[in-house]
Amino acid sequence: MRAKKYILSLATVYMCYFTHGIQAIILSQNAIYFYEKWGYTDPSAGAAAVSLAITATGLGKFLTVWIGGEISDKVGRKKMAVLGAILYTLCFLGLLLTTNMMVAAVCAFIAGVATSGFWDASLYPAAQESAPKFAASAMVGIKFFVSLSGVIYPLLVVNFIKTGSQSIGIIIPLVLSIICTVLAAIAPFAYDDMMKEKTSVNGQEKNAVQEEIDAAKAKMLVKPNVAVNFLTMFYGFLCMFIMYGAQQYTKAFGLTNAGLTEMQSAGLTSIYTFGSIIAVLFWAMMMGKLRWNPLKVLFIDAVFISIALALVLLVQHVVVIYISIAFLGFFAAGGALQTGLGVRQMFCPGPKGRNTGIYYTWMGLASTFLPYIVASMTKSVGETQAIFIMMGLLLTAGVLSIFMMVYLLGQHKKVFGYSAFERVKD
Predict the structure, then answer these.
(1) What are the b/e assignments for 196-213, b being 16+ CB within 10 Å?
(2) Is the pLDDT of residue 3 over 70?
(3) Using 50, 70 and 90 to split pLDDT, how confident is the model at 1?
(4) I want to staple 111 with a disulfide (CB 3.0 to 4.6 A). Which of 91, 217, 323, 328 is the partner?
């Protein structure tokens, strides 16, 4: 059974994304520490500098993920996984040592390149390839480990702040990155082995990867139209826009708009991430054991994301905010981004590295665009109003995703001949 043979590669994927979960929030969770270290004394200017550094991460993702997917399909998953881990090590080492904002931004850019250009391009496909019958659940498992570190790390940061030892918060992911490098170097990867397996079909040599793609296309009654092709890519932008905004600025929203303390605001981030962990386990069961269609899951996610964001904005009550943020974590960060990639592969079967690259290019655009506009708004209208406007933009994205999912539900019936609300048909 392939899943047993490649269990170490799946474990490597999850360790890498546990480390990525820290990298994704390390700047926002340690904002004051970093901007004071960089020499900023004005809080607004310092917050804007941190947002710009976060933008560098998104830029690194946006510029490299598409080409990374193409390269991953050609050279295999192992090399990309190892190189990504090495770049992560360099990133955290730079953040630990530098006192210059521009150097930190370069480190953040390197992290973006490592995340999407190397890890997303190789490890997302590797998760699917290690257990093809449970590909959707395997990818949602990635989100579980991202979320797990997202729950633990903000609380550790609060403790590090109290003890005056915030540098430990950078040393921890540095050590984890070294562990990821070792694991990636020794683990076997299914795709690398599949590329070596050749079969002859009608006198033409084919590999196991191409056979898998051809089998997926054979299940379609009609070819998906241009709109389906676009929407399955664009969802990566909308989902990341919502998820990244909540991930990076939930703590700031608590401090600036909800009147919470530092600990309470850090708790918002942990509650958001805890909600995502519960969701990962729930959706993994729904899509794995009960065979729910991933498109059905995305429709449900879109509806409840919009409701949660509307409550955060319209009902200014601490308890309501806490509950809404938990629901936002459940439906926005509970594997929706990874499930969206599964929907992309379902409608547009092709080399998984390429599809991941296309999808995550749109994701990288969102993670570049959002912190940039927040930094610009912070300079012009102040941090409090900028964060509130940003939450309104997240709500707009949630509503738009509902309309997108309704359209894709209709197209699913045409392409596959059955409703997405039925069990997945093998």
Answers:
(1) eeeeeeeeeeeebbbeee
(2) no
(3) very low
(4) 91
Q: How far apart are CA 129 and CA 355, in angstroms?
A: 14
What the block records as the tokens of 260 is 């919470």
**Using one digit for the tens of pLDDT, what is the confidence trace for 339-398?**
898 899 999 998 888 888 888 888 878 877 888 888 889 888 888 899 999 999 999 999
The secondary structure of 286-343, three-state, reads: HHHCCCCCHHHHHHHHHHHHHHHHHHHHHCCCHHHHHHHHHHHHHHHCCCHHHHHHHH
What does the alpha-carbon distance between residue 319 and residue 336 come to, in Å, rounded to a whole number? 25
Task: Identify whether the C-beta of residue 110 lies closer than 8 Å to the C-beta of residue 94.
Answer: yes
Q: Say how far apart CA 138 and CA 360 lie, in whole Å.
A: 18
Is residue 235 within 8 Å of 294, Cβ to Cβ? no
**Residue given tokens 């004394």 in the structure block:** 41
Write the secondary structure of the chain as one string of H (helix), E (strand) and C (coil): CHHHHCHHHHHHHHHHHHHHHHHHHHHHHCHHHHHHHCCCCCHHHHHHHHHHHHHHHHHHHHHHHHHHHHHHHHHCHHHHHHHHHHHHHHHHHHHHHCCCHHHHHHHHHHHHHHHHHHHHHHHHHHHHHHCHHHHHHHHHHHHHHHHHHHHHHHHHHHHHHHHCCCCHHHHHHHHHHHHHHHHHHHCCCHHHHHCCCEEEECCEEEEHHHHHHHHHHHCCCCCCCHHHHHHHHHHHHHHHHHHHHHHHHHHHHHHHCCCCCHHHHHHHHHHHHHHHHHHHHHHHHHHHCCCCCHHHHHHHHHHHHHHHHHHHHHCCCHHHHHHHHHHHHHHHCCCHHHHHHHHHHHHCCCCHHHHHHHHHHHHHHHHHHHHHHHHHHHHHHCHHHHHHHHHHHHHHHHHHHHHHHHHHHHHHHHHHCCCCCCCCCC
The least confident of 261-270, 309-318, 371-380, 393-402 is 261-270
Cβ atoms of residues 66 and 357 within 8 Å:
yes
Alpha-carbon distance values, 355 to 137, 185, 326, 360 (Å): 18, 24, 31, 8
Angle at 141 between CA 155 and CA 166, to 5 degrees: 20
- Strand pairing partners for 198? 207
Q: What is the mean pLDDT of residues 5-19?
A: 93
How do residues 190-243 score in pLDDT, each as one tens digit?
888 887 765 444 545 456 667 778 888 888 999 999 999 999 999 999 999 998
